[in-house]
Amino acid sequence: MTPLFAFLFDLLLGDPPNRFHPTAWMGKLIACWGRFRPHNKPAAEFISGAALILVGITLTGAVGYALTKLGNALPVPLNWLLVALILKTTISLRGLNHAAREVQTALDTHNLPEARRLLSWHLVSRDTSQLTEAQVAGAAIESVAENATDGILAPLFFFAVGGLPAALAYRFVNTADAMIGYRDPEHEWYGKFAARLDDALNLIPARLTGLFILAASFLVGENARQAWRTVRSDAHLTASPNAGVTMSAMAGALGVKLEKVGHYTLGEAFPLPSSRHLQLARRILFAAVLLAVAVLIPLPAANWVK
């Protein structure tokens, strides 16, 4: 029941203030470590970045273990509630849906400058200043699909595999990848270990998320068969070994073309998306999450709370 409680807490409470949020603490550790990192020395930068990840995994795993032991000392259902509260901080369904809905609202009112601003503020790191309405809608749909893995399904997967220690350790690696895992002169070597480890950790969760999107698209009346065909033909077109799976599944389910100019085009033969498709993507997201929780609940409770 712990994943179900975690999602109820997420939907009801949202994210806690940064001073109480484990991910914010992780970000502070990553930023603090970066002040002492070497520069212009590829080997030393790589070692420093790898050491950061190993230290972070050790610390977050230890915290997760201690919290699990504390939970095990409490009676049912207090132990479920404690662990669910901590697990909730590793997921963000409410935040992702809220961000996508804000972009959708701006598009519905044809306020393109505001839609661009909200997209850049909440969902993507790319330059949004020249995007059309269709491109804004497409980028938001891509973000919903990709973050379904990073922000929701992957933490649940690792919680099922190894409880809070694994979920928190995954969240640290993913946070580090978001902060330093870039292929630019500043981060190429320093963030390489984080980026590659994040890719490896998401190999299974991304494919599970793709399957949940396929099943969810069937449940909400979208085209699951077309989604499967698009995954098979287009999933490999993105630089990321994982993002293409979920994004192409969403493109096929909605029957829209998702394109990052100069990088990839998914669903080439489909029409461009609109705000209506973004609304449908949010519906598929919720259905996929509900399916994932339903699958996880029967798994052995020994991995969660005894």
Quaternary class: single chain
User: Structural class given helices, strands, pairing?
Assistant: mainly alpha
In N-to-C order, the SSE pattern is: HHHHHHHHHHHEEH
Strand adjacency order, main sheet: 1-2
Helical proportion? 55-70%
The average pLDDT value, as a whole number, equals 93
**Could you give the count of β-strands?**
2
Ranges with pLDDT <50 over ≥5 residues?
none
| Number of separate helices | 12
Q: C-alpha Rg, in Å?
A: 19 Å
What fraction strand? under 5%
**How would a textbook summarize the main sheet?**
2 strands, antiparallel
- What is the CA-CA span between the terminal residues? 12 Å
Descriptive report:
The protein is an all-alpha fold and 306 residues long. The protein is 70% helix and 2% strand. The chain has twelve helices and two strands; from the N terminus they run αααααααααααββα. Strands 1-2 form a two-stranded antiparallel ribbon. The mean pLDDT is 93.
